């Protein structure tokens, strides 16, 4: 009987011990993420010259896109290098 009573008291004490840290007066400090500093002047992109038209820039972007596609498209499947060549 005595042992059963002690076990019950210990089990009742356990939830109180788990709740106790939630009542702490000093809450943990939340630190803000570090700010990203601005780029130094030499690392910044230069201003677009006035003689560059928006259509010129758009054409360049299209040209770059076609270059990129030509580099990434799969090539035609030819015979493997180990295939027998006939004339």
Automatic annotation (TrEMBL):
Signal peptide positions (record): 1-24
Alphabetic keyword roster: Signal
Keyword Signal applies: yes
Full protein name: Peptidase
């Amino acid at each position: 009987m005595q042992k059963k009573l002690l076990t019950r008291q210990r089990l009742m004490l356990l939830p109180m011990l788990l709740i106790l840290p939630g009542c702490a007066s000093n809450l943990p400090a939340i630190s803000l993420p570090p700010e990203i500093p601005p780029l130094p002047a030499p690392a910044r992109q230069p201003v677009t010259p006035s003689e560059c038209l928006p259509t010129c820039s758009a054409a360049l972007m299209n040209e770059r896109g076609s270059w990129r596609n030509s580099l990434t498209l799969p090539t035609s499947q030819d015979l493997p290098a180990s295939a027998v060549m006939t004339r």
